[in-house]
Amino acid sequence: MRRFLRAAVCCAAVAGPIAVAPIAAAQADRPTLADAQRLFYNAHYEEAAALALSLRAQGGQDLANDEVRTTALLFVLRGLLNGQDAHNGTDKDAVLKACAKCPAVLATFTEDLHHGQGIARAMLKSNPADETALFYLGKLDLNYVWLQLGLLGKKTGWDEYWEARKSLDAVLKANPKHVRARVSRGWIDFIVNTRMPWGTRWLLGGGNKKKGLAAVREGTEMATDPFSHAEAEFALWDMLLRDKNVPEATEVAKRIAQAFPENTEVAVFLKARAIPAK
Fold first, then answer.
1. pTM, to two decimals
2. Could you say which DSSP state residue 91 is in?
3. Domains of the chain, residue spans
4. How confident is the model over 4-45, as pLDDT tens digits?
5. 127 partner at 20 to 30 Å CA-CA among 10, 47, 76, 84?
6. How far, in Å, CA of 48 to CA of 78, rounded?
């Protein structure tokens, strides 16, 4: 489970993207959570986290805010660790000790995580079928799993893993067209199947790479809001790269670059293949 990477977040075959509404430009005088999401998908992670925090200070302290902020903070931490994950054999404790900014990022992440989990669980006590609470609880839990098992290399987060799996399954049972839940659940199937030893895979309820990839691919083809569509596209891109399907991954990256031209990570990928980002 060490490479439970980007489950939270993210990332067609490439039958071509569905039509989605364009992502409107920000209103400079009244920023919203959509502006933080736009910053995130353009790889401005610190700015996305900071804007989400400022919106909270204005009273926008809700589940969506906590999810955007914790996801952005994960990518901030990943950048501070030079994009390294625990699976690559680095001495993660030594890297963390040498990282002056990491403790503050981890503390903030933990605070936001617990805040969001607390809200979601309280909502579910009142209404166990609340779709919004179920989804965000699952997504926040997966962010925690990625932090512990992916970035920090700690063998913890199993309770959150099972809670996330149960929550996302409940969402999809009630609403099979919930794109974000479909993408997150697809990540679970994909990563468990491709990164876990057989024994661990069995303990985690099994996995299915083809099923996970198909779920995310379907998510890119479903009608949804622009940011949910972006999340599915980034997830598909990441999965295709992990599956060493570079030609299809390149086609997805071209689409992402059109929607998020400031994303330097996508631009670097395309440049390496002599493909203009725009």
1. 0.83
2. -
3. 33-271
4. 334 333 432 233 333 333 454 444 578 999 999 999 999 999
5. 10
6. 15
